[in-house]
Specification:
mainly alpha; 0% strand; flat
Length: 103
């Protein structure tokens, strides 16, 4: 059974599975530790990590499966590189925002 986008065209599910799996792994390995550092209980920290994992997985599904272009549509390299830069900057800002209050 092929995974299909909103237009019914088959798309590759591997990018979604990798990004969702890595984000869930990262959130569950670091999320409760940050929660404990901020004074939350273990239960609350795990609940926040679970909610964040569900939200990130839903976003990844939306971007990488639901609205994904089929493999025969070529996205220009300039646009892909620009998106990569935006994601890297956003990731850096998120890491900085999480690290500054712990100093």
């Amino acid at each position: 059974m092929a995974v299909r986008n909103r237009n019914g065209e088959p798309v590759d599910p591997v990018p979604f599975l990798v990004s969702a799996g890595l984000s869930v792994m990262l959130l569950f390995s670091a999320g409760p530790l940050y929660g404990l550092a901020y004074g939350l209980s273990v239960r609350t920290s795990l609940a926040v990590a679970t909610a964040a994992a569900v939200a990130v997985s839903a976003f990844a599904y939306h971007r990488l499966v639901w609205v994904a272009s089929p493999p025969w549509v070529d996205v220009p390299a300039e646009l892909r590189f620009r998106r990569l830069i935006y994601v890297a900057v956003a990731f850096g800002v998120i890491l900085l925002a999480l690290s500054v209050p712990l100093l």
